[in-house]
Structure formats: C-alpha cells, structure tokens
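Section 5.1 Outputs to date
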Amino acid sequence: MALVRLDVRFDSLDALAQYAHVNQVVVSIIDADTIVALGSLHDQLTSPIGAWLELSENYSAQMAARDVATLSWLVPLDTVVVSGPSAEASAQVLEALLTNDEVNFTNGVATLVGAYNRPAPPNPIAVWSWDGSVLRGGDEVLRVASSESSDLGDATTYR
C-alpha cells in the first residue's frame, strides 16, 4: 500500500480539487486551516480525499475528531493522518470518537467517560498516525519512499 501526502497552499485549492479527481491524496494546507479549506471544496470534491492534521496542546485529538466528523459530511473524506506529540495515542482517541457509540476510553493523552461525537461520519475513515519517522494505521507501517515538488505543492509518498 502507498499513501501520498500533498502539502498545498490555500490559493491552489481549485487545482487541488481537479487533482484529487484522479489521485488519492492526504492533504495538508500549509497556510490555512486544513479542515476549513477542505470543507470549502464541498461542491468540487467527488472523489475520496484525506486530511493531514497537526495536533498540539491547543488542538487535541478530541477537537480533531469533532472537525473530522463535520468535514466528513461535507466532502468524501476517507483518510485522516494525525501528527504531533503522542500521535499514535491521539489517533486511537480520534478513531474511538468517530462512531455513534458512547466512548469510555483511556490512554496516555485522554480519558473519555460517556463521551459522544455525533453524528458519526457517513462512511468509514482510516485513521493513521505520524510520529516523525513512521506512518501507522492499524497493523500497517509505512515509511517515506519518495518526495517531489510540483506546481501544485510538495508530495511525499509513504510505502
């Protein structure tokens, strides 16, 4: 399996929408909020797309889960990658919160008791974590295989 991350600028969103029709990518908007920018493409995206989110002390996995669930109702979102401190534990929290079920969960970054994040996404979303050296999704581990730049942005392929 391969996953391609594409770092693009906000002023390239129209080109991104066209590119995403023929290429499966996980997108990071480098000069704007990725969730808001992808949401603005709701009338242009018909093919699945992914979002790469940088978590921090000010943007937790719980907040990302809320944003991802909302975005999934606007665009055909199928993949989310979280990076930042404790990325793997944060990905577990995000994954747990992308259901209609009550969440009772604890790990190194969160304790959730009786938590809900409804409505759940309309389709399953693969959740990955990036720790700076490997990309993890379930039992699968990917590493940087190649990088290239284009007019659209910088692409990194993980295999």
